């Protein structure tokens, strides 16, 4: 009887190990914020190329064209960008705990990542994770936005960032693979 119980117990342990999720704690996730669809296309193409999971940062308040009018100092995006403490609310929960590399994708607003991206970065546990930032931009490029975000991603190993406004999914994959070597 003892042998039978021991055999069943060992068999259960072996079976549990055999069917455990091999990607838990590994793999890559793309997390993006996109107000117009440009960054979303870039992030989804890159995630597809890399076989990675993709998650959208969804704002509680969806940005309208008026909110994004950078010529208007009272537009929502202008007000947020001029307030270093602004942290717009996120409507959905994103859990990055199962990933060892997280690629954060965002548009550049006034040389910075939108404040909602800071909300996301500050809400996560980055211990032991690699962080890569990629952006889309109308002209100013990545600037220091990646390094700025990395300061708020406590415990992350910031690997670098780049503007991929005109890059393909294959270009992004090549860049990220090079960073992670």
Please tell me about this protein's structure.
The chain has 181 residues and is of the alpha/beta class. It has a single domain (35-179), classed as 3-Layer(aba) Sandwich (Rossmann fold). Helix content is 35%, strand content 17%. It has six helices and five strands. The chain has helices spanning 2-18, 38-50, 76-81, 115-122, 145-152, 169-179, and strands at 28-32, 53-56, 101-107, 130-136, 157-163. A five-stranded parallel β-sheet has the order 2-1-3-4-5, sandwiched between helices. Strand 1, helix 2 (38-50) and strand 2 form a beta-alpha-beta unit. Helix 2 (38-50) crosses helix 6 (169-179). It is globular and about 45 Å long.
Describe the protein's topology.
Blueprint: H1 2-18, E1 28-32, H2 38-50, E2 53-56, H3 76-81, E3 101-107, H4 115-122, E4 130-136, H5 145-152, E5 157-163, H6 169-179
Helix pairs in contact: 2-6
Please sum up the structure shown.
The chain is an alpha/beta fold and 181 residues long. The chain contains six helices and five strands. It is globular.
Jot down its keywords.
disordered N terminus; alpha/beta; 35% helix; Rossmann fold; 17% strand
Number of strands: 5
Total of domains: 1
Please name the CATH topology. Rossmann fold
Strand order of the largest sheet: 2-1-3-4-5
In CATH, the homologous superfamily goes by the name Flavodoxin domain
**What is the CA–CA distance across the termini?**
52 Å
Strand-residue proportion: 15-25%
- Helical coverage, percent range: 25-40%
The CATH class assignment is Alpha Beta
**H-E string:** HEHEHEHEHEH
Give the number of helices.
6
The CATH architecture classification is: 3-Layer(aba) Sandwich
The outline comes out as: globular
> Average pLDDT, to the nearest integer?
87
Low-pLDDT residue spans: 1-25
Helix-strand makeup class: alpha/beta
- Biggest sheet record: 5 strands, parallel
Radius of gyration: 20 Å
């Amino acid at each position: 009887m003892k042998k039978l119980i021991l055999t069943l117990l060992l068999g259960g342990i072996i079976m549990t190990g055999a069917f455990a999720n091999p990607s838990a704690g590994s793999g890559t996730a793309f997390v993006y914020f996109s107000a117009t669809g440009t960054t979303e296309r870039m992030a989804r193409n890159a995630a597809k190329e890399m076989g990675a999971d993709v998650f959208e940062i969804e704002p509680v308040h969806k940005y309208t064209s008026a909110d994004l009018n950078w010529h208007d100092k009272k537009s929502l995006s202008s007000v947020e960008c001029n307030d270093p403490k602004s942290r717009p609310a996120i409507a959905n929960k994103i859990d990055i705990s199962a990933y060892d590399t997280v690629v954060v994708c965002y548009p550049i607003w006034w040389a910075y990542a939108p404040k909602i991206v800071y909300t996301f970065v500050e809400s996560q546990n980055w211990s032991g994770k690699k962080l890569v930032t990629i952006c889309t931009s109308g002209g100013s490029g990545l600037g220091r936005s990646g390094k700025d975000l990395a300061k708020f991603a406590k415990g992350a190993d910031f690997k670098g960032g780049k503007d991929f406004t005109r890059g393909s999914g294959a270009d992004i994959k090549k860049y990220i693979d090079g960073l992670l070597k």
